[in-house]
Amino acid sequence: MQFSEKIKGLEESITLAITAKAKLLKEQGVRVISFSAGEPDFDTPQVVKSAAIKAINDGCGKYTPVSGTTEVLKAICTKLKKDHNLDYETSEVIANVGAKHSLFNAIQALVCDGDEVIIPAPYWVTYPEQVKYSGGVPVIVTPKKDFKISADELKAAITPKTKILILNNPSNPSGALYSKDELMALAKVLEGTSIVVLADEMYEKLVYDGEFVAFASLSEDALKRTVTINGLSKCAAMPGYRFGYSASKNKELNKLMKNLQGQCTSNICSITQAAAVPALVGEIDKDIEMMKKEFKKRRDKACEMINSINGLKLSVKPSGAFYLFIDCSSVNPDDVEFCAKLLDDKKVACVPGSGFGMSGYFRISYATSMENIIEGIEKIAEFVKEYK
User: Fold this and answer.
1) Beta strands 323-327 and 361-365: pairing type?
2) Residue 226: how many CB atoms within 10 A of its CB?
């Protein structure tokens, strides 16, 4: 049987693969401490669950418009105005099945064969795969400092074929956060070009040091060229609900993205849309603050413990998200082998850095209990000490 070359070119998500292997071991009765999954361990806030239950009981199980109900689109606009003073019409936002879906729609609508897409490393594993699937060319830029691309590095990467810059802020996997001045410098480089910025801001509400600034809020020029990608999986502890959204001032792009979605998923789950409304308009702000405070405690403890392990190096203390990106090159530069052996020997699941575009590193997620963090990093310390 002949299969699609485009599909055969896609690689399995390394984060999902490691998580699946850890879950399989658990199903076999093996105790595994998993630092692999990028999802909060907190329960979804009650107001969100209640909204979903009410929607079910009210019979809201019918089709909705492709881009979302009027209620959820208004809620997205309310959120963007409240948090970033950005004014969007409901026709300029689209509800999607999580950030991956938002990114897929945008990349498919924008990228032609041979178009180049600048992706700073380390990057979320999905970015280059979606670009390649669309016929584009991922241009990976490894920043020299703090896992953040500089204005000079961006300028050097731009060619006549450059179509998109994907900017993840705060970053998965590094937790790096761009300051307003750093973002302004990048925006200045882009002025006078037709380059689109896909601003993946999924972790915007999980910032512990510094202040988050939305790329679209920098200037009128930035607003016009930015497609904001966001969702509720991380900040609202709703990963299984699969709610994401995009916001763009480009009418033609929005039309094409809606056309694509209409021929793929149609609308996203109607119950999910109803559940998202209270989360978007601010009814869970106290829940988010509670989670953020706990994540900060976990981050500080995890950083302290990793920094005490001889052989491992935490180059940057993460300012946001809920990950540590750790240099293991002096123990074993083959990060895939390092993580495989760690899982086999100590039953601790981490994700190899090569999946994020940087070998010699591995990622741990501290979106788990403090007990798991302490026990798991103690096992990592034992593993490094015994490593042969």
Assistant:
1) antiparallel
2) 27
- Helix H or strand E segment including 325: strand 323-327
Q: Where in the chain is the domain with CATH 3.90.1150.10?
A: 5-43+285-386
Backbone angles phi, psi at 357, to 5 degrees: 90, 10
d(CA 148, CA 116): 19
H runs (alpha helix) in the chain? 5-8, 14-27, 46-57, 70-84, 98-110, 126-133, 151-157, 180-190, 220-225, 251-262, 270-281, 285-307, 335-346, 370-386
Distance CA(206)–CA(175), nearest Å, equals: 10
Is residue 379 predicted with pLDDT exceeding 80? yes
Q: Is the pLDDT of residue 317 over 70?
A: yes
Q: What is the value of pTM for the model shown?
A: 0.93
Q: Which residue's entry shows tokens 């795969």?
A: 129
| Residue keyed to tokens 């938002």 | 102
Which residue do the tokens 């990950």 mark? 323
Task: Provide the mean pLDDT of the chain.
Answer: 94
Range 303-330 burial, b when 16+ CB lie within 10 A, else e: bebbeebeebbbebebbbbbbbbbbbbe
Of the CATH numbers 3.90.1150.10, 3.30.420.40, 3.60.20.10, 1.10.246.80, which one belongs to the domain with range 5-43+285-386?
3.90.1150.10
For residue 11, the tally of other CB atoms under 10 A from its CB is 12
- Residues listed for the chain: 388
**DSSP assignment of 181-206:** HHHHHHHHHHTTS-PEEEEE-TTTT-
Q: Is the peptide bond before 65 cis (omega within 30 degrees of 0)?
A: no
Architecture (CATH level 2) of domain 46-281? 3-Layer(aba) Sandwich (3.40)
* pLDDT for the residue numbered 3: 79
Contacts of the segment 338-342: beta carbons below 8 A, 24+ positions apart: 338/362, 339/18, 341/383, 341/387, 342/380, 342/383
- The predicted-structure confidence for 34-88, as pLDDT tens digits, reads as follows 898 788 999 999 999 999 999 999 999 999 999 999 999 999 999 999 999 999 9
CATH 3.40.640.10, the chain: domain bounds: 46-281
